[in-house]
Structures are given as C-alpha cells and as structure tokens.
Amino acid sequence: MQDFSGLGLAAPLLLALSKLGYTKPTPIQAQAIPHVLTGRDLVGIAQTGTGKTAAFALPILHQLAANPQQPPRGGARVLVLSPTRELASQIAESFRSLGSEMQLSVAVVFGGVPHGAQIRALQRGLDVLVATPGRLVDHLDSGVAHLGKTEFFVLDEVDQMLDLGFVKAIHRIVKTLPQRRQNLFFSATMPTEIAKLAADLLKNPAQVSVTPVAKTADRVEQQVLFVETHRKRDILVDLLADAKMARTIIFTRTKRGADKVAQHLEVCGVSAAAIHGNKSQSQRERSLASFRAGRVRALVATDIAARGIDVDGVTHVVNFDLPEVPEAYVHRIGRTARAGAEGVAISLCDGAERDLLRNIERLTRLRLPTEDRRAAPGSPESRPPVRAAQTARPLEQRRPPNAGPGRPQERGRGAGPASSPAQSRPRFGASRPQGERRAGDREASHQG
C-alpha cells in the first residue's frame, strides 16, 4: 500500500490527511483499515507510537461520513475507552484533526475535572466520545449517559487498562451497549487475560499484528547501571549533567517517589516537573506543557505516563525504579526513539531489583548491557546516609526515661533489644511487601 488514497477513504479524510502532511499509512494502518471498513471486529497488536489511533479513527470516520445521522442525546455514535486522561485527550484531538473537513462533535470524559461541561456535552449528543472507564461509569450511574445507540466501540491500550484495574468498569459499560455494534480492540501486548477479554467481547474478529509481542522499540540504545539504592538520586543528577539529555522522562514506581526525585533535581539545579495520579488535571497539563516547550528538562512520572503521552524529541528515558510488571518496561522506553529518531534508555538497578531485571530480559528476549556503578566497599559513597534519628549522641542522652542511673533497663514496650534500632531497621535492599505498601504510594486504579 503506497498511499492513503489506495485505501478507499472518503474525500474529506484524504483532504485532512493531505493538510496534516500524511501520505503513506503505517503498517498497522495499512493492515487494520481495510478490515474495519468492511465492518469486522478487530484485534490489533502494535506498540505505542505506531499510528494505532489513526488505524481505527480513519475507518470509523469514513463510515460516519457515509451514513450521516443525528447523534443520540445522552450518548455517542462512537465510544472509545482509554486508560488515562492524557491518552483520552490525544485520541479526541486525533479525531478532530482527521475529521476537520467533516461536521463532527467530539468530547472527552475523564476524572479530575468538574462534571458540568461533560454532562452538557453528553446531553447534546456526540459523534465521538472518548472516555476513561471510571468517570464514564459515574455518568452511567447518575443517569446522564445512555449508550444504547452506540455503533462503534473501541478499547485502546487494553493491557494498561487491565493493569489499572478497569476490568469491572469495562464490563459494566459493555452491558449498556447495544448487541449490534462494531468492536475494535487495540493493545501493545496480548497476555492470556487480555485474550480472554477479547474472546468475550468480540465476534469473529480479524487479527493484525505489526510487531512481535513485547518487542522493545527499535533505535533505542538500552543500558542498565547497577547502583546502591541510596545513590540513585545522585547518580541521576550526574547523568543529567550530560547536555545530550536535553529532554528526559524519568519513571518511578510510586507517586511519592516521583515528587521526591523531582524536588531533588530542582535542588541540584536541574529543571524538573512531576506527573502522576495525585496531581490535578490542570497540574498535569501544566507539567506536560512545560516539558513539551522545553521549560523543564526532566519529566518525572509514574507508569500513568508510560503510554499516551506523545512528546516529540524525547532524547532519554531513565528507569529510576524498574517496573514490577515487565511489559511496562517496553512501554516506558517507547517514549523515546519515536518517528524514526534514535533514543537512549537507562535503567538504575539496585540489589532488590535484580529479579525484576531478569523478568524484563526474559520477556524481551534480550540480554541488556550492564555497567557496575556501585561504590567501592568501605568508601563513604557505599554507606547509606545517616538519618537524623541515627546521629550518635552521648550514652546518657539515649537512656530511656524509665532507666535511671545505675538501674538496669527494663525489658518492655519501647525498651530493650526487641526495639533496638539495629533490629527495627529494615535490611538494606529489602522492600516493603506488596500488600503492605502505603496506599498513597501506589498509582490509583481509578485514574478515570
């Protein structure tokens, strides 16, 4: 397939593509569009950044143009579900630009913003509704949204939606949809649970795949640095001293960690902003705008930003923490080396993360090049920083209140060997068990 005109798309779409400077379809577009134009359900497997949005938006817009109708009040002719607010906004913008030569009503529904404008848009009726599952369920429960006349249903980045815990919300939404509809299902990976969901929702789907499952992005130079946990921030600052790291996304495992890393970079003279689920929508948009405009060099993010943030010219991705889900590594490093450019992915790996590294290598079938950046044993850099509570003090200042001069210390709560700092302090490299992680540390599963 040499150009878009050979796909049989409507004239308004070809005109919009020409104005946007798009002439040739990407592999996922060339394979998916003909199937969707025939009305078949579709499963598409492709990495982020391969043009998936246009692969479903163009054939859907073609069918809307061929069959113009008044949008249903309270609902939409097209429903696209997305895992994050940022991706939802980008999908909606793609529909607007690709449908710029059509009379098209498009709206986005997601959490973190007031309900009013979303309710008014739904009440008027929409051609295209792009939503995160959580907020859309809110509108369904309140009786504002009515999806009984939806003709096209798209699930985008399905693997991330399942990672964020949206499977119940998806099933809740599907129950409100008409039986007769076209279903399109896009994901970067296809583990067993996603294949089962596809089997439940789709009818005799066509399947297209343009990259091997869990293949890391081409043109990305990957490297792993073995470091001590307590030295990660300082090593990150040393890395950012390189002027080549002009636009860097840094991934942390927790929201609190993202804030701390961004604050540390600012203190060290590196302009940085943090983005995660605890930030308001306006804060997230300001951080992204600053990063896109080059006002900050580093964007520190949790995995909410691993997909759906389309920022040109990202030179480096740094995994400050290795992800617990190995597929997330593929999506993270896919933020660089986009549109034919080259990029670099650097991962900081401490002793507790060696198993995570092995899982990533097993998934990607790659042996990642490594470099040992650990300090020499016995050097000051190799020792964890001394906390204020551990600062040495005269013995008499450390005696508990119930232990007077010459009196043996009582063995009870708060005293004796059972509560000594050496025994209460966690071992170096040990991490808090999964079930005991603080609620504020984990990305909220209700991003929508």
From TrEMBL:
Q: Could you state one GO cellular component term attached to this entry?
A: cytosol
The record places domain Helicase ATP-binding at: 33-208
| Gene3D superfamilies per record | P-loop containing nucleotide triphosphate hydrolases (3.40.50.300)
Q: Which residues form the Helicase C-terminal domain?
A: 235-381
Q: What is the residue range of the motif Q motif? A: 2-30
Gene Ontology MF term list:
ATP binding; hydrolase activity; nucleic acid binding; RNA helicase activity
| Feature: compositional bias, Basic and acidic residues | 434-448
Q: Which UniProt keywords apply?
A: ATP-binding, Helicase, Hydrolase, Nucleotide-binding
Which family, according to UniProt? Answer: Belongs to the DEAD box helicase family.
Instruction: Give the protein name, as stated in the record.
Output: DEAD/DEAH box helicase domain protein
Instruction: State the species of origin.
Output: Methylocella silvestris (strain DSM 15510 / CIP 108128 / LMG 27833 / NCIMB 13906 / BL2)
